[in-house]
Amino acid sequence: MGQLVLAAKVTHVPSLMLSEAPGSLLRAAREPAVSSLRELGRRAKERGATCFVVFDTHWLSNFGYHINANARHRGSFTSHEAPQMIRDLRYDLPGDTKLAEAIANKAGDAGLNVIAHQVASLGLEYGTIVPMHYMNPDGFAKVVSVASPLFASFEESRILGEATRRAIDESGERVAVLASGSLSHRLWPNKKLGPEAWTSVASEFNRQVDLRVLELWQSRRYREFLDMLPDYATKCNGEGGMADTIMLFAALGWYDYRGTAEQLCDYFPSSGSGQVNVEFHVET
């Protein structure tokens, strides 16, 4: 039998990579986020994780759910939206075809349109690459990346998350599940993308709701959070419809989840969006 050994909501903002450039003014601002991603990787390795399943809100699909089931993820990535921030970032990570196909099959049994792909030219998106750069740099664990469909319903993403947990439980893997995406995601307009944009949230309303969400998590008031999640995703410009967060909580058990939320870095802005790294502790 398999086991869920780590679950977390993580940031993947490209400014993390920009902060690594020599002399970067962002180094100090992004260091807590970078350090906490590395800490999550250390915890996953310590717990014997054999695979990361990443719900990636930067791999956006127009037609159904897709899973990268390649046995090896290898390439050099330059971001099409921000090539000045992520350029020629090499990655070489093992994949997990068996678990990817098991997730697709479980979701298919529940009525979803899900395809697990083995296509050598299908690379990873930076919603997976950036967290793995810090959490899994030596490829100690396999990687399965799951796309976020733009036109799926809230309930469909919940079904996909539940199917993921069933596939994990029936596998022989020790799995870390990551919701890779922002909290609120209203970005600054182009004309306001000066240096101050890196450290400010574009909407005070969004910032206040983000902070309230973190309070609910730390108080284990998950039912209240889940009941507000559809409105939160809509009114606070959720990245990928917050599909990653829906799938994460579904994999955790939805209303039945009672674990502790451990915030590993301060809430921080990036290009107007709200970001954080939080581990949702599970019994192992």
UniProtKB/TrEMBL annotation:
Residue intervals of the Extradiol ring-cleavage dioxygenase class III enzyme subunit B domain: 7-280
Single GO molecular function: ferrous iron binding
Keyword entries, A-Z: Dioxygenase, Oxidoreductase
Gene3D superfamilies on file: LigB-like
Transmembrane is among the record's keywords: no
Superkingdom, taxonomy of origin: Bacteria
Protein name: 3,4-dihydroxyphenylacetate 2,3-dioxygenase
Gene: hpaD
